[in-house]
Design brief:
alpha+beta, CBS domain Like, 2 strands, 34% helix
């Protein structure tokens, strides 16, 4: 069995400037768990899944630093994990698909074996 045997061919997409609310509405109305983000030329630039929308400020589910671990100092912690903290902040406060999408999308061809 190959990817082509189980894949969806009528794919619903969103643009990078679609609001997070628009993306959530699309997922809900269409009964899907993720949506590709495409540019003006319909090239894939990312994907937004339910997981990307889980940690949101609006719902009180944003990721918070683990307060149980001992910290050396706030600035060392910030420097050491700056990329991760920045990514979490943007994901939880982002307003558009581009802000919250996963850009490192792994894809396969339609002929790829499922196993």
């Amino acid at each position: 069995m190959r990817a082509m045997d189980v894949m969806t061919t009528n794919v619903i997409t969103v643009r990078p400037d679609a609001s997070v609310q628009e993306v959530a509405k699309t997922l809900s109305e269409k009964g899907i768990s993720g949506v590709p983000v495409v540019d003006a030329d319909d090239r894939l630039i990312g994907i937004v899944s339910e997981g990307d929308l889980l940690h949101r400020v609006e719902t009180g589910t944003e990721r918070r630093p683990d307060r149980t671990r001992r910290r050396r100092s706030w600035w060392l912690d910030t420097i050491a994990s700056d990329e991760e903290l920045a990514r979490d902040y943007v994901k939880s406060h982002g307003r558009t698909a581009k802000d919250v999408m996963t850009a490192e999308v792994v894809s396969v061809s339609d002929m790829t074996e499922l196993d």
